[in-house]
Amino acid sequence: MDIKKLISEMTIEEKASLCSGADFWHTKAVERLGIPQMMVSDGPHGLRKQDLTAENPGVNLSIEAVCFPSACALACSFDRDLIYRMGQALGNECQAENVGVILGPGANIKRSPICGRNFEYFSEDPYLASNIAASHIKGVQSQNVGTSLKHFLANNQENRRMSVSAEIDERTLNEIYFAAFETAVREGKPWTVMCSYNRVNGVYSSENKMSLTDTLRDRWGFDGFVVSDWGAVNDRVKGVAAGLDLEMPSSGGVNDAKIVEAVKNGTLSEDALNKACENVLGIVKKYLDGRNENAVWDKEADHRLAAEIASQCMVLLKNEDKILPLDKNKKIAFIGKFADEPRFQGGGSSHINAFRVTGAIAAAAEYADVSYAQGYRTDEDAADSELLEEAVRLAESSDVAVIFAGLTDLFESEGFDRSHMKMPECQNELIRRVAQVQSNTVVVLHNGSPVEMPWIDDVKGLVEAYLGGQAVGEAECAVLFGKVNPSGRLAETFPRKLSDNPSYLNFPGEGDRVEYREGIFVGYRYYDFREMDVLFPFGYGLSYTDFEYSNLSVQTDGCNAEVSVTVTNTGSVAGCEVVQLYVHDCESSVIRPVKELKGFEKIELKPNESKTVSFHLDRRSFAFYSTEIHDWFVESGDFEIMIGKSSRDIVLSETVNIKSDDKMPYICTSNSTMGDLMKIDCARKYMDKLIDEYSRMMQTESDNTELGESTKLMMEHQLRDNPLRVMVSFSDGAITHEDIDNIVKSINDELNR
Ligand code: BGC
């Protein structure tokens, strides 16, 4: 397909028609020129291909497919290879079903724990979110099937998602909200990016040149097409000019006609339209070139993969008295409806028509005899006393009770945010009552985001399964009975209560405006800075074995560092460890988080085995985004390199000196403060001289006092917030305005040399 030639042969009407969908799930064909349609489907954690031949196609009527764990669970694996393998399977399913692009992954930051769609997002941390997204993208695309990284940009709440404006300052935008997408784009190279519904600083994402063109294409090198979220177009013509290539779904030709009119009357350049067509056709060509007519997919194999992946994502949060793994010879009670009918995915556009769902009751048969009581209903918040009493009786007559609890679809879904962080009342009551009669109580949670746990001190064990996909029961039993050693780590902080969260005062905003006033202090960046107690910190998760860390080595070269550390399994069973690397800037001219994740690796170790893990830190690992130069900036100085088992459990650290060539442009004026000038090498001598002169004057005034070094130092502290010009009045005119002007001139001359 010679794209440029094709475009040159197309009429304006044909070109405009390519800029919107043929229907809900297809791009348009141009039969005259042999351009075929291409099908796109949701995503992200399974194939939601709508069966267009069905008589009554509705939201959930899609072909039977495999539901893998949702993003909230996947990120807890901290495992790039695992996510890549899931991507490969999804890509293969798409090839077999002739789907050109599978919509996802979603890389948005979890700004608040109650965003209804958090289950579809990875993390509160941009480094983790973007790296996991990149692996997902690479896996799918290895099968010559495209992805659509979404929802670009700052779609961090469902409340008024189609109209709200996320008000975000430049540094926060770059360090947190752009950063969540940046690595996914630069390394993952998604075929497409989906713009979000909302506005950012007043401008709809579907017509935001700053994000779609200046950042995505010009800074990050994106070369696919940008598609609107379904119905996200506000002004189609502005969209084309800003870099929105494809509108989805079809607008019935209404917006195509507007594009034609705008090109004809000169308000939209034909070049911009050509560019959009080029981007769309570029991906259609990739789809055609990579089409594998012989692909077949094996549901059973993908189900097994879903089970394996889910088992690698489970996070063991509490294990008092080593209650887990369960002793198969004990009387075990599984309690709670989710043991039988697990909640394994979230509601909305990502809803997969799972061909099979395995709950824990069914899966337990492989390991032990377990008895079951339903315990609660999922359609009511209040406890059902009969079910409750039955469950309590069963717990009392057993040796151990495992309660399967969590959130129901009524509590969280695409389309609305949660109003609180609580679990259903009937489930909290069930856990409380069971724990009263059974000291060996374990809770397994099925939820898309953090919940408050008023019962946490009453239970011995806690497994966070999140929304683990259709094979979740198998994965749960594998972990509960010790076939798999849990190795998931939390990709988000669990605060003790919602009001502890940094976005609490400004979520979901007022009317159509939400101000991100917490700035860069999202998630653990905030809790750490405030030294706040949290329920479970970012990066936290237990194992059935123990790991010891040794031999931290850090070699620096300018703004780069090579880090290595040895990890040993000192326990008695094999297991995986997530080695986490955080960086702390010891002294900075801007406020920075106490630590930021800049590396992670997952390794598997047999008992007594050791492995050395290496990390490469580049300049970005040390940089902050400077609003003065509108770019990333590394300040020379000491940085602490921390190796942690979680964000709150740093086991080894080393402070190193980073030497940066980055220069902040600086112009000295008579209003420059002496403190700022003291920090600039070439200006320091002038400041020393001024302080000397001033000290001598002080000496003459108070005749007998000897002005020593410590007094000069005190003087330096006193003077550092003073603008230069103040020295004229403080010295009673002895230091003149002319003196100050000369100093300013000399400093600027030296700075520009
Ligand atoms: C969702 C997208 C989804 C699209 C197509 C939208 O409502 O926000 O995530 O891909 O629908 O189903």
Report how far apart the termini are: 55 Å
**Count, helices:** 22
| Ligand roster | beta-D-glucopyranose
Strand content: 15-25%
Largest sheet: 6 strands, mixed
Any low-confidence stretches, pLDDT <50, length ≥5?
none
State the assembly state of the protein chains. single chain
Helix content: 25-40%
Radius of gyration: 30 Å
Structural class: alpha/beta
Shape: globular
Strand order of the largest sheet: 9-14-13-12-10-11
- Number-wise, the strands total 24
The average pLDDT value, as a whole number, equals 96
Folded structure, characterized:
The model has no long low-confidence stretch (mean pLDDT 96). By secondary structure, the chain is of the alpha/beta class. It is globular and about 95 Å long. Helix 4 packs antiparallel against helix 11, helix 5 (126-141) packs parallel to helix 6 and helix 11 packs across helix 16 (472-480). The relative contact order is 0.10. The protein has 22 helices and 24 strands. The structure holds beta-D-glucopyranose (BGC). Beta-D-glucopyranose binds at residues 42-43, 103, 150, 229-230, 349.
